[in-house]
């Protein structure tokens, strides 16, 4: 398998409808107006030597290697900074140019170590290549002058080295950090010979502002910034394009390999979601795939107090099938169910829900999206007619006002955040609605026009107050409403929001947001040009999560911000395949494509395809499964890729439910918290070990390609298929492509999707006869449901209230370097940044309680308590505390409650009344956590097959 080669055109592409024709070395070339001579030349297949230019960055013109001659012009202009002109005649080769280029190269090489043979970049070094291209044969100045060769390497970052002795001060790293990533962590310090690259205030990378996105490493044309994995293992020799398995941005990468070992992950420039960029997780945090904690053999045990016993796949699968059949014979066919995972591929989740519906004979299938974006499904379905974001990511380039509600893109969706920041630096305005002062509120060259720092739990009141201003101040786009929406529904809604009780002044006391800020933000969104809303779990994970989603949809319809580029309503999906797991019918009430199980026409499609009768009644949701387990009527569960004992709320109730079951099957990479209650463990495959698709937040169906064989010997879809066959319902797929063919046959929005098509490029669903190349922007001209539906959004305060015992509000979220329950990222170098969950507190709340920075504190709610250390910060308002949930020893979900969204049961993670008090250290339970964990993960030393 060869390396996937990407051409570097030197400067970025230019979008212009005016085309310009010129000749380069006698060849006629036609390119868009504004294109550089360098890019035009590359497009004609004529390579011009370069060092400071790369097509990920604007041209800079500092190295003077790329000189050309242009007839009629004096001198030798730099081709990277010279735009094409009609009729221009360019010459890229001449004796004069050769001499000039060699002279420049001589200067670079005279201050560069001559260790090419032992350099980590050997064979893949632009400096080395360019020296060859310009024909450098000698360095007349010698190598003994003053130089930088003794500069020390900074190896502080866990993933890359900075060796300044090899730096040619081309500024590509500095510009990548600014233009691509938007962090501005690097500078060129000093002048002339003293010039050097510095992180922050000339500090180690690890302690600087650097967020380890790796854009500078990718941009560096030498070995100055280099992945440690390349230093240790050598240059890769083949590569495979695949998709990141972390967040819902869905970045494409080249997995660069040597044999069956990954050497590095390089963001793919043709990736339609990431355009060659990445974050620290996707680029660097893949080491968990080889972590010694990985379980690679199936295991069973009779009781959860027994040690695990390694068995063959055959024994494990037969055991699962006989246990599930035994339970169904004893307690009825509804006594077992499945939980699918948004970490798994669309094909895998399709198969797991099919297992429930066709092999178990019930609709007891639910997914982790229950606890994150189920309100999105409900809310956007009710208002627009389908459960999905309306735009592609590129759309943000045309936004004038960007509204971020209950999302923290720089931590949770970093590559899209970089894109958004770029647009903001170009002048778009920003409104942030969030209890915390997230990084976007103020960053280098980015500042929000409005930050509505609302009290947790008051989203609906703020959103309705924004609508009040838009309606009562006459800012509604009446043409859009009259042409595109249900006008009766609009009239009812307009009357509702116009009520003075919804005014910013009337709601200020409840929301904590000054009325003038709400009014200003509403006016800006309604009148500032293209307005785009991006929201996250800070909207959905509330008792009124679905109401808030509908309130957002109302705002977009009222202002006409739908159905074109630059606008829209965009849920930022947390996990890689949240969209796909929902699309694939993982919910108990819906078959694939969001079609209700009660619909006989839809059931008929699957009954014909699967040869079974499908129950028209929705099955159990996760909380109902756990309730039924405690009541003794639900006894068997197959959980693929989820850790509900850590990620779901009210852990005591979750574990009580799991403990009450007779056969819990966990299918995962590691023995997670849920596995403590499991009777069967099936070893899962990492994304590097599987083929399939992940569907990102833009509805884009990205191919995931296997780069190595599953370490357990069996792919995840094969294990599900084997369980089904063992239970007597036959499945005989040859591979994920065949599963996708079945999805396309039975799901109208996927009718045009096939692996052959996806090999030509990722498409966004709907992809069918009406939209053969997919649908980047939804609801153009007409909503999926016909007329847009305004929904009344009465604000109902949550029952979770502060009081004398629990006077603070806890809200939870993620941090850049960690991912969800941390099962993957905790097993990588990312622990360098977030080795434990901390409790963010306002200094005022801390001093009232005698708490100092770094003190251990006890965090208590009515459901439980835990201890962690305090981080004092004004990012949170007084009265609000915040923590992450990445480390099982913290057990943040011990304190979250069983309150949930009224429509979907999505837990109210974002609002828990708590008290915080000083304590001496970790609780006894936490101190012994690791010992308990080791004990419960005991594996008996019995060889496979015995
Ligand atoms: S890794 Fe990313 S954030 Fe850090 S210096 Fe490089 S470009 Fe900037
Ligand atoms: S570190 Fe690399 S990219 Fe940055 S200035 Fe030096 S050579 Fe150029
Ligand atoms: S932004 Fe998301 S998809 Fe992209 S590399 Fe980071 S974690 Fe992966
Ligand atoms: S590549 Fe054009 S000046 Fe450096």
Describe the protein.
It is globular, with a radius of gyration of 29 Å. The chain has five domains: about 20-135, Ubiquitin-like (UB roll) (Roll); about 160-290, 2-Layer Sandwich (Alpha-Beta Plaits), CATH 3.30.70; about 300-370 and about 575-750, 3-Layer(aba) Sandwich (Rossmann fold), CATH 3.40.50; about 390-570, Dimethylsulfoxide Reductase, domain 2; about 810-935, Beta Barrel (Barwin-like endoglucanases). The protein has about 950 residues and is an alpha/beta fold. The protein starts with 18 loop residues before the first strand and ends in a 6-residue tail after the last strand. Helices cover about 30% and strands about 15% of the residues. The chain contains 30 helices and 37 strands. Mean pLDDT is about 90; it is low at about 940-945. The strands form ten sheets. It has an eight-stranded mixed β-sheet, covered by helices on one side. A six-stranded mixed barrel has the order 31-35-32-34-33-36. One iron/sulfur cluster binds near residues 167, 169, 172, 221 and 224. Pfam families: Fer2_4, Fer4_7, Molybdop_Fe4S4, Molybdopterin, Molydop_binding, NADH-G_4Fe-4S_3. Keywords: 2Fe-2S, 4Fe-4S, Iron, Iron-sulfur, Metal-binding, Oxidoreductase, Repeat. It comes from Rhodopila globiformis. In the C-terminal section; belongs to the prokaryotic molybdopterin-containing oxidoreductase family. Belongs to the complex I 75 kDa subunit family. This is Formate dehydrogenase subunit alpha.
């Amino acid at each position: 398998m060869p390396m996937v080669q990407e051409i570097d055109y030197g400067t970025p592409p230019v979008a212009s409808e005016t085309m310009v024709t010129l000749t380069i070395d006698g060849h006629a070339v036609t390119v868009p107006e504004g294109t550089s001579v360098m890019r035009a030349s590359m497009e004609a297949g004529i390579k011009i030597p370069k060092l400071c230019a790369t097509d990920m960055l604007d041209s800079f013109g500092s190295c003077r290697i790329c000189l050309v001659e242009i007839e009629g012009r004096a001198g030798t202009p730099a081709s990277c900074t010279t735009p094409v002109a009609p009729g221009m005649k360019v010459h890229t080769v001449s004796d004069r140019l050769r001499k000039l280029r060699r002279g420049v190269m001589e200067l670079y090489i005279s201050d560069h170590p001559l260790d090419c043979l032992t350099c980590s970049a050997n064979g893949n070094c632009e400096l080395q290549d360019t020296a060859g291209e310009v024909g450098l044969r000698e360095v007349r100045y010698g190598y003994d002058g003053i130089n930088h060769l003794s500069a020390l390497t900074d190896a502080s970052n866990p993933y890359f080295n900075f060796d300044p002795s090899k730096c040619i001060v081309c500024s590509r790293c500095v510009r990548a950090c600014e233009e691509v990533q938007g962090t501005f962590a690097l500078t060129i310090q000093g002048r002339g010979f003293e010039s050097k690259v510095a992180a922050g205030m000339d500090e180690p990378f690890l302690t600087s502002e650097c967020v380890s996105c790796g854009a500078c490493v990718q941009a560096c044309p030498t070995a100055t910034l280099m992945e440690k994995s390349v230093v240790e293992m050598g240059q890769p020799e083949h590569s495979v394009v695949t998709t990141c398995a972390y967040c819902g941005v869905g970045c494409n990468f080249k997995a660069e390999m040597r044999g069956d070992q990954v050497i590095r992950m390089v963001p793919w420039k043709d990736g339609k979601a990431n355009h060659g960029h990445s974050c620290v997780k996707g680029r660097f945090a893949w080491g968990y795939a080889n972590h010694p904690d990985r379980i690679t053999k199936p295991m069973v045990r009779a009781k959860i107090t027994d040690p695990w016993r390694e068995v063959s796949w055959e024994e494990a699968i037969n055991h699962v099938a006989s246990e599930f059949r035994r339970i169904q014979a004893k307690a009825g066919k509804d006594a077992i169910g499945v939980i699918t995972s948004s970490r798994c591929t669309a094909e895998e989740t399709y198969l797991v829900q099919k297992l429930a519906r066709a092999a178990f004979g019930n609709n007891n299938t639910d997914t982790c999206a229950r606890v994150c974006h189920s309100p999105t499904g409900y809310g956007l379905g009710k208002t627009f007619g389908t459960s999905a974001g309306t735009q592609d990511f590129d759309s943000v380039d045309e936004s004038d006002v960007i509204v971020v509600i209950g999302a923290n893109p720089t931590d949770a969706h970093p590559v899209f955040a970089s894109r958004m920041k770029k647009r903001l630096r170009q002048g778009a305005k920003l409104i942030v609605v969030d209890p915390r002062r997230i990084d976007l509120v103020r960053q280098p060259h980015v500042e929000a026009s409005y930050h509505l720092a609302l009290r947790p739990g008051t989203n609906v009141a703020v959103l309705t107050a924004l609508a009040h201003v838009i309606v009562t101040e006459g800012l509604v786009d009446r043409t859009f409403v009259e042409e595109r929406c249900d006008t009766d529904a609009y009239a009812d809604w307009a009357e509702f929001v116009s009520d003075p009780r919804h005014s910013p002044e009337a709601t200020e006391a409840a929301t904590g947001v000054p009325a003038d800020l709400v009014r200003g933000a509403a006016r800006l969104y309604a009148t500032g040009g293209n307005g785009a809303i991006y929201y996250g779990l800070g909207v959905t994970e509330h008792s009124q999560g679905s109401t808030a989603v509908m309130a957002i949809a109302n705002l977009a319809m009222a202002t006409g911000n739908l159905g074109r580029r630059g606008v829209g309503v965009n849920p930022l999906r947390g996990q890689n395949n949240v969209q796909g797991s929902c699309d694939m019918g993982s919910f108990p009430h819906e078959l694939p494509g969001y079609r209700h199980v009660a619909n006989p026409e839809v059931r008929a499609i699957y009954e014909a395809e699967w040869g079974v009768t499908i129950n028209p009644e929705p099955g159990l949701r996760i909380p109902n499964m756990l309730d039924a387990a405690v009541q003794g009527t639900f006894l068997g569960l197959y959980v693929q890729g989820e850790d509900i004992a850590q990620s779901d709320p009210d852990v005591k109730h979750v574990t009580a439910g799991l403990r009450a079951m007779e056969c819990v099957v966990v299918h995962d990479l590691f023995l997670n918290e849920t596995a403590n209650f499991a009777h069967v463990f099936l070893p899962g495959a990492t994304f590097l070990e599987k083929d399939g698709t992940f569907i990102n937040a833009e509805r884009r169906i990205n191919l995931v390609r296997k780069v190595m064989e599953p370490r357990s010997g069996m792919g995840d879809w094969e294990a599900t298929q084997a369980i089904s066959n063992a239970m007597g319902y036959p499945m005989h797929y040859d591979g994920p492509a065949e599963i996708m063919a079945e999805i396309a046959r039975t799901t109208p929005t996927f009718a045009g999707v096939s692996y052959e098509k996806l090999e030509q490029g990722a498409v966004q669903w709907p992809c069918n006869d009406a939209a053969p190349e997919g649908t980047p922007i939804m609801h153009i001209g007409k909503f999926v449901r016909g007329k847009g539906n305004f929904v009344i959004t009465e604000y109902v305060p949550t029952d979770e209230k502060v009081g004398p015992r629990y006077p603070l509000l806890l809200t939870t979220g993620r941090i850049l370097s960690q991912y969800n329950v941390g099962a993957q990222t905790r097993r990588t170098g990312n622990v360098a940044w977030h080795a434990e969950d901390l409790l963010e507190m306002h200094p005022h709340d801390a001093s009232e309680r005698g708490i100092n920075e770094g003190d251990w504190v006890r965090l208590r709610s009515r459901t439980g308590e835990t201890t962690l250390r305090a981080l004092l910060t004004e990012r949170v308002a007084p009265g609000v505390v915040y923590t992450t949930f990445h480390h099982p020893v913290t057990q943040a979900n011990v304190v979250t409650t069983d309150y949930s969204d009224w429509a979907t049961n999505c837990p109210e993670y974002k609002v828990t009344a708590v008290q915080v008090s000083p304590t001496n250290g970790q609780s006894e339970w936490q101190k012994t956590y690791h010992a308990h964990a080791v004990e419960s993960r005991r594996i008996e030393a019995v060889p496979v097959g015995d």
